[in-house]
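HOLO CASE FILE
Compound: pyridoxal-5'-phosphate
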Amino acid sequence: MEDWLKSDNLVIEKGDGIYLYDTDGNKYIDGVSSLWVNVYGHRKKEIDKAISDQLKKISHSTLLGLANVPSILLAKELIKVAPKRLKKVFYSDNGATSVEIALKMAYQYWQHKGLKNKTKFIALKESYHGDTIGSVSVGGIKLFHNIFKPLLFDAYFAYENIEKIIEDHHNEVAAVIMEPLVQGAGGIIVQPKGFLKKVRNLCTKYKVLLIADEVAVGFGRTGKMFACDHEHISPDLMCVAKGLTGGYLPVAATLATNEIFKAFLGTGKTFYHGHTYTGNPLGCAAALATLKLFKKEKLLKKLQPKIKLLAKELEKFKTNGEVKEIRQCGLIAGIELNQKASEACLLARKYGLIIRPLGNVIVIMPPFAISNLQLKKMLQIIYKVILP
Ligand SMILES: *Cc1c(COP(=O)(O)O)cnc(C)c1O
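Model generated. Tokens follow.
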């Protein structure tokens, strides 16, 4: 807030395609996809229409004890595209809540199974799963999470030693939670090939559930529908949010296997968790339109050349003395500098680009609708602003 109060506050008034417009009429490339959520750009005709059509029917009705039409249709579509063991959908309204639900479900699952000691969680170092207390408990970013330590439940944090941690503690562990392939807020940390599959196999071997937090990487961001698809694995629980509604409205979901679903059937086995706006019809209508467009516009196919172009453009940064490391996976990249990246990101605004830093890392997360030319322009601006 101190920095915000001192700075020229940028106020966004409009959006169109990949561009944002401020209240003075200046135009910017939305280089962070409005915090990693935007897919087809702003004011996408089909999504706008889906929401206004739904508006004429109903804007909200509760999912507590009732169902609504868009949430049913969306659940069906989600199951079609999700990793194959996932068969059931539990709605909520943001990434953090979808994680809370997965954690509580995993814990309660083992209680119903009679393995009452399985109460703990394993997370990855530098992990980020949201800002509510449960998701912070499995968060590994000191800057964000350390001060809340006294409020949190215990978790084990692992990375290279994950096999040993699972082996030593599986009797007391309900689940491993991880961001598959890329740890986003931790600084765009790309995992070695095969790591996800290895964790999946360890979870199966030691009877620990695997929660995949696909909130950031889901819906095409890595070049496949879900990050889990790269290593052909199915988690037991999967969290999705951000890109689900095309970046329009807050809807999230926690997907589960039939095995987990069944463990909650019967007297005294209720899962007590419900958010007021869960499965909101307007949001679900936006998500349905988003998923429909994936197919209609052959989005995943169209993404591939853009991913290659991004890799090629990033090559140019390798000789830049300010750059420490470059990491990319799909249409996500991080350029790690030898110093804080905040000044470079602020300067980029003068050239018509909105980007955000994570510590020393410049995050590149454009909407999928970005053209080759616009992507090149975006990287040219970044190149300019990281030179001292
Ligand atoms: C953004 C994010 C979350 C939290 O989502 P919110 O909608 O901001 O609560 C959780 N997990 C990951 C991996 C994220 O990137």
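CASE NOTES: The pocket of pyridoxal-5'-phosphate is lined by residues 94-96, 99, 128-130, 179, 184-185, 213, 215-216, 241-242 (CB under 6 Å). DSSP finds 14 helices and 17 strands in the chain.
CLOSED: yes
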